[in-house]
TrEMBL record:
Plastid recorded as keyword: no
InterPro entries tied to this protein: Ig-like_dom, Ig-like_dom_sf, Ig-like_fold
Sequence intervals crossing the membrane: 374-392
Gene: LOC108864461
Domain Ig-like positions: 34-128
Endpoints of the signal sequence: 1-19
Keywords: Membrane, Signal, Transmembrane, Transmembrane helix
Protein name: Uncharacterized protein LOC108864461
Length: 394
């Protein structure tokens, strides 16, 4: 036992001597296609001479800065990576513009000259979002509908990544799902493989005497792209009580109920937890439960509710399950609630208004499509200490 500890100590000393202090890779976790991309590779050589800084995307080198070999850095062709030489140096790299192909895993490798030959390799992912070129469009409109006719129209989004979620609004109210259905939108082989996709949603609405009484039919379609901001989780584990395993993050989710539980007494009984998280009014959250690293499904029920208070929304997801014998006998139970926080970005179609004249409806006006609305947020996420992910707009 003592020998093993000693060995670990020696190994730590060796690896400690070889690593570079305070090394950190700072890249935006997400970017919008078209924008430049700035990435920092920070390090403290503690007085030693730099040998090289090498940058890779998905393991392909695209930039190399070796002060000893030549005063100018070398760049290599990698799809979607166009280095701005003037605005790049030993500590950072600027890409002129980004596109879908810019998405991937970036790494920087820093090494020092002999005799120490220290080296460090840091890695971080970049996700590209492609915004649609404009708002969604409404197809299949007729100028006139009579009582008993069916309005049969399709809302089509422009290609984007990720593809948006579409919603129909009739007279400013969300159209019931029984009136809507997904439709195929012609694909573009150039971009489909890269996750850029257009989607369509059909609306089939019979014109009833109630519409005639209301005298107006107002149609609008909204497409929403969800930009993920961060991911956080809370977890409880059996050891030897069912207890929290980490300090709850005040900004993150929190599991309540059945804390400090001795599951030994609870075999075959029903247990329940709530996972609660607060988000800014303009943002949304996606909550997911896992039990022993598997998605909560069979024999477990999940119920989600959202409450609004002022500028905040509180999401509560309830997990109810029967504590099966196997959890108790194996003494292995880990319950985790993971939340992905996202920012919805909305694009709105033209608003089409029909007004009633005796027993028919005529197009009255088609207003302009609204510009996209982006809720202002600025968020910095720290992932595993070393890698700083940085997402923001405006
Ligand atoms: C690299 O360029 C950035 C931005 O112009 C600058 O802030 C930084 O100090 C430069 N680093 C070095 C080592 O020259
Ligand atoms: C609705 O329109 C689509 C094409 O736009 C057509 O394929 C479909 O048959 C129409 N449905 C009805 C009920 O008219
Ligand atoms: C955002 O998070 C959701 C929920 O985990 C996930 O399904 C989706 O793929 C994520 N989107 C991106 C672009 O990473
Ligand atoms: C369980 O959590 C409490 C605080 O909620 C803490 O004081 C206690 O040490 C934890 N017990 C174990 C076994 O982790
Ligand atoms: C979970 O929340 C619901 C209401 O949202 C409450 O009725 C229930 O008692 C809560 N359960 C636990 C275990 O806290
Ligand atoms: C669900 O629970 C019941 C007892 O509550 C058990 O008999 C059954 O095997 C469980 N099913 C699954 C799929 O675990």
């Amino acid at each position: 036992m003592f020998l093993r500890q000693l060995l670990i100590c020696i190994l730590l000393l060796i690896s400690g001597a070889r690593s570079i202090r305070d090394a950190a890779l700072q890249v935006p976790g997400a970017i919008i296609a078209g924008n430049p991309l700035i990435m920092w590779c920070r390090f403290d050589l503690e007085g030693e001479a730099l040998y090289c800084v090498k940058w890779y995307k998905d393991n392909s080198e695209f930039y190399r800065y070796c002060p000893w070999s030549s005063p100018t850095p070398t760049t290599y062709n990698v799809a979607g990576v166009e280095v701005d030489i003037v605005h790049s140096n030993e500590s950072m790299v600027t890409l002129v513009r980004s596109d879908v192909r810019t998405e991937g895993t970036y790494s920087c490798e820093v090494s020092t000259e002999g005799p120490a030959y220290k080296t460090v390799l840091l890695e971080s992912d970049v996700v590209t979002y492609v915004m649609p070129s404009g708002g969604p469009v409404i197809d299949g409109l007729r100028k006139r509908y009579d009582l008993g006719d069916t309005i049969n129209v399709t809302c089509r989004s422009a290609p984007s990544k990720p593809p948006p979620r579409l919603k129909w609004y009739v007279n400013s109210k969300r159209a019931p799902s029984k009136l809507t259905g997904k439709t195929q939108v012609s694909s573009n082989p150039m971009t489909d493989g890269m996750g850029v996709q257009a989607v369509g949603l059909n609306l089939k609405m019979p014109i009833t005497s109630e519409d005639l009484r209301n005298k107006i039919i107002k149609l609008q379609c909204v497409s929403t792209i969800y930009k993920n901001l961060s991911e956080k989780y809370d977890e409880i584990m059996y050891h030897p009580y069912l207890n929290r395993t980490l300090l709850p993050d005040p900004e993150g989710p929190r599991i309540n109920g059945e804390e400090l539980l001795n599951i030994y007494d609870k075999a075959r009984t029903s247990v329940e937890w709530n996972c609660t998280t607060k988000v800014h009014d303009a943002n949304e959250a996606y909550l997911e439960w896992t039990v022993n690293d598997e998605e909560a499904t069979r024999n477990m029920t999940v119920h989600l509710s959202i409450a609004r208070t002022g500028r905040q929304k509180t999401y509560t997801s309830r997990l109810r399950m029967t504590l099966e014998e196997k959890f108790v006998t194996s003494m292995r139970l880990k319950v985790r609630c993971t939340v992905v926080y996202s920012q919805p970005i909305q694009f709105v179609s033209e608003e089409t208004i029909f007004t009633a004249a005796s027993t028919s409806f005529h197009i009255m006006k088609i207003s302009e499509a609204s510009r996209m609305t982006i809720a202002p947020t600025f968020l910095t996420v720290v992932i595993i200490g070393l890698v700083v992910s940085h997402i923001g707009n405006h």
